Amino acid sequence: MSTDESKAVSRPQPKPWPQSQPRRWSPEAGARARVRGLLAVLTCVAEGGMPGARRLALAEVAVGVPAAAWGVRRRSVVWAVVGAVLMVHGALELSYETVFPRD
């Protein structure tokens, strides 16, 4: 065996690029898609001329639902209460016009 052969180092084969692997669904990607959808709905509502109070009420309900779900899933009473309060307050604001219609 010559000295050149003993000094040769075998290199590992390069790994394939991450893009070559099929993409899998992840909870983070699903959450991003839901947020994009919610933003699309809110922008459509905003373009329709909805009053600011109704937009705020809709946003409260939209944020309250995932906050309450997060609290229930993580068994966190604080998050569940925050979500419930946001949902109830937003629902009351949305129903205000029904109870007290404008002239």
Please give a structural write-up:
With 103 residues, this protein is mostly helical. Helix content is 70%, strand content 0%. The protein contains 4 helices and no strands. It has helices at 3-7, 27-47, 52-74, 77-99. Helix 2 packs antiparallel against helix 3 and helix 3 (52-74) packs antiparallel against helix 4. The chain is elongated. The mean pLDDT is 76.
Spans of at least 5 consecutive residues with low confidence = none
Overall number of strands: 0
**Taking Cα atoms only, what radius of gyration do you get, to the nearest Å?**
27 Å
- Written as H for each helix and E for each strand, in order along the chain, the element string is HHHH
Number of helices: 4
Largest sheet: none
Amino-to-carboxy terminus distance: 101 Å
Helix content: 55-70%
Task: Quote the beta fraction.
Answer: under 5%
Structural class: mainly alpha
Globally, the shape reads elongated
Mean pLDDT: 76
